[in-house]
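Quick log. Single chain, no ligands specified.
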Amino acid sequence: MISLAEFLNGQQRLIDEALDRFTPPESALPETIHRAMRYSLFAGGKRIRPVLCLQAAASIADDAPGALEAACSLEMIHTYSLIHDDLPALDNDDYRRGKLTNHKVFGDAMAILAGDALFTLAMQTLTRIQGLEPARKLALIEELAFASGTVEGMIGGQVTDIEGERQPPTAELLDRIHRAKTGALLRASVRMGAIAAGGSAPQLDAISRYGEHIGLAFQIVDDILDIEESSAALGKTAGKDVAQGKITFPAVYGLDASRDMAQQHCREAHEALAPFGGRAIRLHEIADLIVQRKS
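-> predicted structure:
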């Protein structure tokens, strides 16, 4: 079996090729918006969410019509959220993935529209899946829309995050922010893979628990890295959580306890994969990678 690094490189190439097919070329009119969309979409992300989607599908079935489209739709939503998150009205960041943020290159108005366009393209990509029965296609659209939305979804988490700035950091508020802001889309990533593969209710329940635990582990590690790593290592401005008075895991629990929590969520993610046996080996490896990463 090839190493995880080699495997992820192959998966990233597969996803990038598909994203290139599904996204209008820079030459398509109006050209500026397509340049802006592609600038951020192909800025060098790790593609964790689409890889999780594909591997969740692979843990259930050898063939999963629509899994690649689902994977790409997740990356479109994630990229749109980053473009908007970096805007002056939100986190006001100059760098993302080691490059100037979208609004620094294309201006605020075009960055807003690029994010909007990527959201729209994500839904369009799901509607165009071939060879998948309408009920399952609708389930994929519903899953992505819910995870992106205001009730227990990404946008709701972002709102709570903004309104929580400078408030006393509490465990309850922290949990509400990150289960929605980061966790919802990571959970949807594995759920959408399972849906595309025709997973049973018990399989969907198990993969959902895996997604919940890696979602929390991912955010805990993000919060730790914001304190411990440099801007160069992160590819974005380090130390912004503290500067903006964000409610983070280290702010609530301290660094050592946060590290322990990340490890505990990783262990529980592994346990959730028990029903899938050896088919989930890559999901096990990705859980470990999420906790061990340095950027």
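The beta strands are 95-96, 99-100.
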